[in-house]
């Protein structure tokens, strides 16, 4: 079982029926996936089996990991906050490496506290909020949360300058403090907090792990046809110039090794919008990094507004060919 700090009392209260498990052996992988009921979940013994199930279409929110319990042993300590909701382990996963999660924010007050609480249920890690002087008071809320939680830190920037500069500021902050793993994710619940341990585990064998929408098992939920088309065309455009070695070039749910970011010469990165993700992935390719993509379900935001605009699209159209020509 994962170890770490116990959940707050409100999360430990089991108000739902016990979870019924469909046990999946690490050696018996010939079974067919089933339609799980709201009180059912898969039970596996390691992360490799999780990735196998997710690649076949299983929902990672419905998979429990119990590395040391035999197939006929007692059930692991997972719960649900409500029937059909994602499984929550009794304690968050811990890893040998020091980890920080960089959260860039602009007008994310409605999401920030809930996301920080959700992250704490699944992974022991520090969190850095990089706020671009949000008019809605996100920065002030981040300061309040930092006073309440020792693992929450805040980096204030004077104005909105784009996603790329925000991440670069966060990466440099993390590198100065010698974290082993630096994770980036959105603050709007588009990236599932329960997938964070999968990213970190994947980094045992890869310098860069990308939560991918476009490998088997990956998907985009609640997107309209227009957004699906824009995203697919964007990735196809990048692959046309930079190659097929990465399926989801623009994905923003990633785990970097510290030494890889150190080698990237971040001071020379020029991208400001979403093409920033492409530029860093391309630099990783150029450096010969081991890159792994794990499937995720990307869910459209519920609170707030998307930051994707025409300026980001135009920047991508112009900058991707330059990356190809200036290897």
Give a structural overview:
With 327 residues, the protein is of the alpha/beta class. It folds into 2 domains: 9-89, no CATH class; 99-325, Spore Coat Polysaccharide Biosynthesis Protein SpsA, Chain A (Alpha-Beta Complex), CATH 3.90.550. Helix content is 34%, strand content 18%. The chain is built from 10 helices and 14 strands. It has helices at 9-12, 47-55, 109-122, 138-148, 163-176, 196-202, 225-242, 258-263, 275-286, 310-325; strands spanning 20-23, 40-44, 63-65, 78-80, 87-89, 99-105, 126-131, 152-156, 181-184, 208-212, 219-221, 254-257, 291-295, 297-299. It has a 7-stranded mixed sheet, sandwiched between helices. The chain has a 3-stranded parallel sheet with strand order 1-2-3. The chain is globular, with a radius of gyration of 20 Å.
- Poorly predicted parts: 1-14
Q: Which overall shape is indicated by the principal axes computed on the Cα atoms? A: globular
- Under CATH, the topology of the largest domain is which? Spore Coat Polysaccharide Biosynthesis Protein SpsA, Chain A
Compute the average pLDDT: 88
CATH H-level superfamily of the largest domain: Spore Coat Polysaccharide Biosynthesis Protein SpsA, Chain A
The order of strands across the largest sheet is 8-7-6-9-12-10-13
Total domain modules: 2
Give the helices and strands as they follow along the chain.
HEEHEEEEHEHEHEHEEHEHHEEH
Rg (C-alpha, Å):
20 Å
In terms of structural class, how would the helical and strand content be classed? alpha/beta
Describe the sheet with the most strands.
Answer: 7 strands, mixed
Quantity of strands, as a count = 14
**Residue share in β-strands:** 15-25%
Count of separate DSSP helical elements: 10
Please report the first level of CATH classification, the CATH class of the largest domain. Alpha Beta
Query: How much helical structure, as a percent, in the residues?
Result: 25-40%
Question: Which architecture of the largest domain per CATH?
Answer: Alpha-Beta Complex
Terminal CA distance reads: 45 Å
């Amino acid at each position: 079982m994962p170890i770490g700090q116990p959940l707050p009392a409100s999360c430990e209260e089991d108000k739902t029926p016990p979870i019924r498990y469909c046990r999946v052996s690490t050696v018996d992988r010939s079974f067919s996936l089933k339609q799980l009921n709201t009180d059912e979940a898969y039970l596996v013994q390691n992360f490799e089996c999780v990735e196998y199930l997710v690649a076949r279409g299983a929902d990672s929110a419905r998979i429990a990991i119990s590395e040391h319990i035999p197939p006929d042993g007692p059930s692991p300590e997972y719960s649900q906050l409500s029937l059909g909701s994602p499984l929550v382990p009794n304690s968050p996963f811990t890893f040998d490496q020091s980890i920080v999660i960089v959260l860039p924010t602009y007008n994310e007050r409605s999401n920030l506290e809930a996301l920080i609480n959700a992250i704490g249920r699944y992974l022991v890690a520090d969190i850095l909020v990089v706020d671009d002087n949000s008019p809605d008071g996100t920065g002030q809320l981040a300061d309040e949360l930092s006073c309440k939680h020792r693992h929450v830190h805040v980096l204030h920037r004077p104005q909105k300058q784009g996603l790329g500069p925000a991440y670069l500021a966060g990466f440099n902050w993390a590198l100065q403090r010698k974290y082993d793993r630096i994770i980036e994710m959105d603050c709007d619940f588009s990236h599932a907090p329960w997938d964070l341990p999968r990213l970190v585990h994947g980094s045992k064998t890869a310098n860069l792990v990308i939560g991918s929408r476009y490998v088997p098992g990956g998907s985009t939920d609640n997107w309209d046809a227009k957004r699906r088309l824009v995203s697919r065309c964007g990735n196809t455009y990048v692959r046309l110039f930079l190659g097929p070695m990465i399926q989801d070039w623009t994905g923003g749910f990633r785990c970097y090794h510290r030494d890889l970011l150190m080698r990237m010469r971040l001071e020379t990165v020029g991208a400001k919008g979403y093409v920033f993700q492409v530029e860093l992935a391309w630099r990783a390719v150029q450096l010969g990094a081991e890159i792994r993509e794990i499937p995720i379900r990307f869910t459209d935001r519920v609170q707030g507004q998307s930051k994707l605009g025409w300026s980001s699209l135009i920047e991508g159209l112009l900058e991707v060919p330059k990356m190809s020509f200036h290897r």
